[in-house]
Amino acid sequence: xxQGALQRELLRVSIIILAGFAVGWSVDYPLYGLIVxxxxxxxxxxxxxxxxxxxxxxxxxxPQDNGLIGYAADRIIRRxxxxxxxxxxxxxxxxxxxxxxxALKDGVVVLDSVGHIDTFNSAATRMLLLRKxxxxxxxxxxxxxxxxxxxxxxxxxxxxxxxxxxxFSLQVQITExxxxxxxxxxxxxxxxxxxxxxxQDFIADVSHELRTPLTVINGxxxxxxxxxxxxxxxxxxAQMGSQSNRMTNLVNDLIQLSKLESASRERxxxxxxxxxxxxQVAGEMKGYSDTASVIVEADDRLMIDGFKDExxxxxxxxxxxxxxxxxxxxxxxxxxxxxxxxxxxxxxxGPGIPPEHLARVTERFYRVDESRESTVxxxxxxxxxxxxxxxxxxxxxxxxxxxxxxxTFSFVIPAFRVGEGVEAAV
Length: 426
Description:
- This protein is an alpha+beta fold and 426 residues long.
- Helix content is 53%, strand content 17%.
- The chain has helices at residues 2-26, 30-56, 68-103, 122-128, 139-142, 146-154, 190-225, 231-262, 274-284, 308-325, 370-376, 382-391, 420-423, and strands at residues 107-111, 117-120, 161-165, 168-177, 181-188, 270-273, 294-298, 303-306, 331-338, 341-347, 398-402, 406-414.
- The chain has a 5-stranded antiparallel sheet with strand order 2-1-5-4-3, sandwiched between helices. The protein has a 5-stranded mixed sheet with strand order 7-9-10-12-11.
- It is elongated.
- The relative contact order is 0.06.
């Protein structure tokens, strides 16, 4: 098609030039005739170029020509039609995407690289109380919950954030996409939190109600044990006392776990000496085993800002487990300062934990070896208590284990809770 248009354009120019040359030849001025022919051909070309220029600005009709100008205009018209069809399809697709996002029960907010709002759906409007003219505002200017502001400024979006905002309990997950853009998903977890609170309250209430009758039962069992009774009955009383003590420990652990779950992370902590606390717990463990010993290794008296009772509980559970499952071997507690904070590690020389169990050992009542639990005792809540206590110190429990060589339970207290800054506050 292009070749045909080019041939017609060349033929037209050639005819005009030859006509001018022929007229000039007839009057004995062939050169002037050739020049006139060239000028006329250029006038035609300029006229056609002017028509396509005006048409491109919608100031006239499309040029009607069978040469290159006409071919170019036809190609532009075809491309414009194709582009309009594509834009229409993309607009329909975008409309469907927007309708889908709008139909979501979860809130969706699209942010730019620094956090200004690009767009959001009606669910986000309801949960965050946004208005139509809030586009362009920075998200932290509109959502001022301290938890969210710190989460956004930290820019670590690997884990979702849950916080309370007015009457809502919200869970926020931010994901980066495209070129320096972010999409923020907001889920209303108010009902889930209410159910979780009811569960925690139920466990706490039942545990408290069980504590009193268990105390009475233990008291009578101790009284009967001190009496002169037949040997078979004494054996039965001993078993009853053992199970009653086990139930008492379970109730106490449930109450402690309930307190940890309901405690706020925004409480003001106290500054205390972690080295001394580790040595104190190690001393308390001396009567726990006849063969095992606990050694605390620390270069210095290390101060941290936190919750002493909760850290005492975490260390007690970790060291108790290390003694129980360490086959009476030596337990080492090491405190090591590093750039990112203070690492605390409890290492035993027990049989180790199979890899398939490592991800679940902090779950409530989860047991690696049910048969072993009947001999070593325990409620199955110790590591769950440790996990929640460490969360209040911005730390996470890490477990490393090698079968036949032992296990290491460690956590890192972040740097802002450790060191000279907290020592100065004492």
